[in-house]
Structure formats: structure tokens, C-alpha cells
Amino acid sequence: MAQRNYMSVSFAALSQNEAFARVAVASFISQLDVSVEEMEEIKTVVSEAVTNSIIHGYDENPEGIVRITVKIEDNVVELIVEDEGKGIEDVDQAMQPLYTSKPELERSGMGFTIMENFMDSLEVATAVGKGTTVRLTKSLSFAKALQN
Description:
By secondary structure, the protein is of the alpha+beta class. It has a single domain (about 5-140), classed as Histidine kinase-like ATPase, C-terminal domain (Heat Shock Protein 90, 2-Layer Sandwich). Helices cover about 30% and strands about 30% of the residues. Strands 1-2-3-5-4 form a 5-stranded antiparallel sheet, with helices on one face. A hairpin with a 3-residue loop joins strand 4 and strand 5 (about 130-140). The protein starts with a strand and ends in a 9-residue tail after the last strand.
């Protein structure tokens, strides 16, 4: 029988909470025998997705709320990052390497590219004025759930 587990956390759309999000997800995933490389990739993806929500979704408005849900089933991790920010007008354009809607902030425009490269799948659901949901999955190569 497949082992399923999940966690969910919400926090204010403040840049300093990006580190909290990384640690929360890493702590939850650490119940699996994850390689150091896979853990670093997931933490990087969390940083990119959360930063996108804070900077682009909410324009750094601390009234916004970012939600992260992580689901584990066998060796597959599903990561969902949601906001109720301004949404993405053109997802295809936003996903182009080096594209950024905030060049004045010296953003690299590589967030979605990094997410695509480090994860097995990336889905973006967005509605202008209503927010964005980024859903990512990764099959962990060496993960085995710890037996209790």
C-alpha cells in the first residue's frame, strides 16, 4: 500500500519568509531518504516559487498570503505554491528564460527555468487579479519512507 503524507503552511508575503518556507519543506521531506542534491534542488525550487509569489504576485505587499502544500506518496514529492496575487498575464512569456517583469529589481528571470530543470513536472494555473498556483512534482531517485 502506498504511503501518503502531506503538510500545508501559510505565511505573510514577506521576503524574509522565503527562508522559513525552504526550511519547512526541507524538514518535512527529510522523513525520506533524500539525496543531498535532490534536497538542494527542492529547496531552490521552493525559494524560486515563493519569491515569485512575493515579488510578482503581491508586489511585496505583506498583506498577501503565500500557501505551500507538500504531498508525499511513495517516492514522489508534490509541491504546490499558491497566492491570491495579481496573477500572470502571459504565462508563456513569463516562462521564457531571462524574462522578468521587474528588471529594476535586477531579477534574473530564471525562476521558472530553474523549476523546470530541477523538477519532473511544472504546471502553472493563473487568473489575472485572482492569483497563481504552481504545482511541481519530483520522483526521488533514492527515497524510501522511514519505517516507524
